[in-house]
Recover the amino acids of this structure.
């Protein structure tokens, strides 16, 4: 798909992977809509990119529906959705204070997995009735999994299972939406320099980067964005989870 002139919706668009993706898409000529719970920060970036920012809680059915309705009203039907909204607080299943509070586990699953599914279903419904483009394609959905989906570390039980769910959702969604010409892909990043990691001391960040075989550094958000843009442009990519991790395979801890 040629993204130029098309509407691209990015959740978690105010920072990190989402912000980098919005910048790459805008540079390629897309009309970008940044959906984020932190709408104030999203508005600053949207103004810079000539796009729009919309407040959205991906876990809330009405909030998500209202956000997409606002995008459609401004730009028309969305052709690309990139799900970048997510959290990853570390916590052991059984720690020093006893078992992990169930509410903590539920929160990660709700944002990372249910939020992804919520946006996917609400985005695909109107898109399935939109006018088809070249070769019958109507649009693309890209979700964010993680290498933790495959090699979750100790303390990542909630995060890994949420991202494993995102990875597992990709193929059945791609098969179901094939009849509408909607492709579904997922990206599984390794250790990236995002707000989640920026809170760590610099030495800890360098140590993590050094654990990557090559290049021995943290991934850059713009590298995720470049892959997302490539997925949009390559019409034969469908139903797959692509790792972008510098050949990293996570150790137990």
């Amino acid at each position: 798909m040629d993204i130029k002139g098309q509407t691209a919706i990015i959740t978690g668009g105010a920072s990190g992977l989402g912000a980098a993706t919005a910048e790459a898409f805008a540079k390629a000529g897309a009309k970008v809509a940044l959906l984020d719970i932190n709408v104030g920060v999203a508005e600053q970036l949207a103004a810079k990119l000539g796009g729009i920012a919309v407040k959205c809680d991906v876990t809330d059915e009405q909030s998500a529906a209202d956000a997409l309705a606002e995008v459609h009203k401004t730009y028309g039907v969305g052709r690309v959705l990139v799900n970048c909204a997510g959290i990853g607080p570390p916590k052991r299943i059984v720690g020093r204070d006893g078992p992990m509070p169930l509410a903590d586990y539920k929160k990660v699953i709700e944002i990372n997995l249910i939020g992804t599914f919520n946006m996917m279903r609400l985005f695909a419904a109107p898109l399935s009735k939109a006018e088809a483009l070249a070769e019958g394609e109507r649009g693309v959905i890209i979700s964010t999994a993680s290498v933790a989906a495959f090699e979750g570390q100790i303390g990542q039980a909630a995060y890994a299972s949420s991202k494993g769910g995102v990875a597992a959702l990709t193929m059945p969604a791609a098969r179901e939406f094939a009849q509408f010409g909607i492709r579904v892909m997922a990206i599984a990043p390794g250790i990236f320099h995002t707000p989640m990691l920026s809170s760590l001391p610099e030495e800890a960040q360098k140590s993590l980067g050094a654990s990557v075989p090559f290049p021995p550094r943290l991934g850059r958000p713009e590298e995720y964005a470049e892959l997302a843009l490539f997925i949009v442009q390559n019409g034969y990519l469908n139903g797959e989870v692509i790792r972008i991790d510098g050949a990293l395979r996570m150790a137990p801890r």
Observations:
- The beta strands are 7-11, 31-36, 52-55, 80-83, 94-95, 98-99, 139-144, 182-189, 241-244.
- The chain has one domain: 7-192+221-244.
- The chain has a mean pLDDT of 95.
